[in-house]
């Protein structure tokens, strides 16, 4: 069993940079729902929309959705950190500590 599945993680740390990648169906579902909602929000504004309308109908909801996605990935994923390159083995993940115990 890999380190990812031992902790029931939905997201693993990226090999390059900082952030996460979905690794279970739950992680992919959260990511897909996020993308669909962003696409739907983008359809609520157009060239004739006022600045206030763009702010309240797109920018603010997108910001809240993004914060929610990051919080879910933080809680259900590996500890975030800066990585550069593929680990030598599954046991070499530098950030394999889960936040699922933090409630």
How many discrete structural domains?
1
Q: What is the number of E strands?
A: 4
Q: Looking across the biggest beta sheet, what order are the strands in?
A: 1-3
For the largest beta-sheet, the strand count, sense and barrel status come to: 2 strands, antiparallel
Give the SSE order as H and E letters. Answer: HEEEHHE
Strand content: 5-15%
| Form type | elongated
**Helical content band:** 40-55%
Count of DSSP-assigned helices: 3
Unreliable stretches covering 5 or more consecutive residues: none
**What integer is the average pLDDT?**
81
Indicate the structural class: mainly alpha
Q: What is the first-to-last residue Cα distance?
A: 25 Å
Question: What does the radius of gyration come to?
Answer: 17 Å
Question: What key phrases describe this protein's structure?
Answer:
3 helices, 103 residues, two-stranded antiparallel sheet, single chain, 47% helix, mainly alpha, 4 strands
Describe the protein's architecture and organization.
- With 103 residues, the chain is mainly alpha-helical.
- It has one domain (27-103).
- The protein is built from 3 helices and 4 strands.
- It has helices at residues 3-6, 25-42, 51-76, and strands at residues 11-13, 16-17, 20-22, 83-84.
- The strands form 2 sheets. A two-stranded antiparallel ribbon has the order 1-3. Strands 2-4 form a two-stranded antiparallel ribbon.
- The radius of gyration is 17 Å and the shape is elongated.
- The chain starts with a helix and ends in a 19-residue tail after the last strand.
- Residues 78-103 are annotated as: Disordered.
- The chain crosses the membrane at residues 25-42, 54-74.
- Keywords: Membrane, Transmembrane, Transmembrane helix.
- Residues 88-103 have a biased composition (Polar residues).
